[in-house]
Design a protein that fits this description.
alpha+beta, 2,3-Dihydroxybiphenyl 1,2-Dioxygenase, domain 1, nine-stranded mixed sheet, 2 helices, 9 strands, 41% strand
C-alpha cells in the first residue's frame, strides 16, 4: 500500500451554517457539492478538492468527544492494505460512500484518533465493500 496526500478533515458541529460561512469568508473556501448522506452538513472546497467536511450534530460535542472526528488519506493498494491489517490484528471498519463508491478503511491509532484510508472504486477488491446504510455497512475486523 502507498499512502497519498491528506484528503480532508471532518469536523462535527452544532453550527453548520456559521462554520460554513466562516470557512468561506476567512479561508476563501467554496461551499460545494456533497454526497447524499443521511445527516446534515457541508463540504468546503480548496480548489477542486473538498478538504473540510462539516457534519451537523444536535448538541455541541464535549471536550471528551473532540470536534475533529478524523483525518484521511487517499491511497492505492486496497487488497494489500486489508491483508496487512488482518495480518497485524488491527481493528478496522470498511464503508462505501453513497453515490461515489469510495471505499473507506477506518482505523484508530494507539491514542484512539480515527483515521481513514480512502480507495477509489476502481481499486481491485473495492467491490467487496458494503454500502453505507445497508446491512453490514460497517465490517469490523480483529477487535
Amino acid at each position: 500500500m502507498q499512502l497519498g496526500t491528506l484528503d480532508h478533515v471532518n469536523v462535527r458541529t452544532a453550527k453548520v451554517a456559521t462554520m460554513r460561512a466562516w470557512y468561506v469568508r476567512v479561508l476563501g473556501m467554496v461551499d460545494g457539492d456533497r454526497p447524499p448522506f443521511p445527516f446534515p452538513g457541508a463540504w468546503l472546497y480548496a480548489g477542486t478538492n473538498p478538504v473540510v467536511h462539516l457534519v451537523g450534530v444536535g448538541d455541541e460535542p464535549a471536550n471528551t468527544d473532540p470536534k475533529l472526528e478524523h483525518f484521511a488519506f487517499s491511497a492505492t493498494g486496497l487488497t494489500s492494505f486489508r491483508e496487512k491489517l488482518d495480518r497485524l490484528g488491527e481493528a478496522y471498519e470498511v464503508r462505501v460512500v453513497p453515490g461515489l463508491g469510495i471505499v473507506q478503511f477506518n482505523v484508530w491509532d494507539p491514542d484512539g484518533n480515527h483515521i481513514h484510508i480512502d480507495f477509489l472504486p476502481s481499486e481491485p477488491g473495492a467491490a467487496d465493500g458494503p454500502a453505507w446504510g445497508q446491512q453490514g455497512a460497517m465490517v469490523t475486523r480483529k477487535e
